[in-house]
Amino acid sequence: MAMKRRKLSNPLALAVLVTLWQKPMHPYEIAQTLRQQGKDISTKIKYGSLYTVVQNLQKHGFVEVAEVERKGNRPERTVYGLTEAGREEMADWLSDLLAVPAKEFPIFETALSLLGALPPDDVVRLLQERLQNLEVEVASGRAALQKLGETLPRLFLVEVEYQLHMVEAQAEWVRGFLEEIEKGSLPGVDGWRHFHETGELPPEFT
């Protein structure tokens, strides 16, 4: 089952829809709410483009002006709310993302698919460096999760939990792969090493 093509595909647009599902807000309040709820950890949020995202949602009929606020001498603030079409789009889009696995193309996978171009010893050194960085990321992720857990229910932190588990899983895989290269138990590692030492492709590589 493939994902549906949508009028808007920017994940920030979905985050805005869900934020407005909570209550009507002006864009500055949307930005504050996204920060307070820790959504900037899981979604790439460019706050400068938030107004453009809201305008695009309005253009497609997913949000509408709920009211225009004026407090004292402050400039007017336009408060936006979800339309019925916006509620349907939010529920449908979110359901799609949860149910349908999408093929993503992490840059690390690309690097792994091409690592034979580097000598095994270089790859070991580089992956050891990556592993150190991942371990730091895991430690800081656990600290962030604990800190956020002091003020937010776990329901609103499941994406941070998932992110942390993915980093831990990657670290575990890198650790095991490194061990295979270093011990020489990785199938093809001798031919890989031989190629970089002599420039000759071993028979199993041809």
Automatic annotation (TrEMBL):
InterPro entries: Metal_resp_DNA-bind_regulator, Tscrpt_reg_PadR_N, WH-like_DNA-bd_sf, WH_DNA-bd_sf
Top-rank taxon, per record: Bacteria
Transcription regulator PadR N-terminal domain ranges (all copies): 16-91
PANTHER family: PADR-FAMILY TRANSCRIPTIONAL REGULATOR (PTHR33169), TRANSCRIPTIONAL REGULATOR PADR FAMILY PROTEIN (PTHR33169:SF27)
Name the record gives this protein: PadR family transcriptional regulator
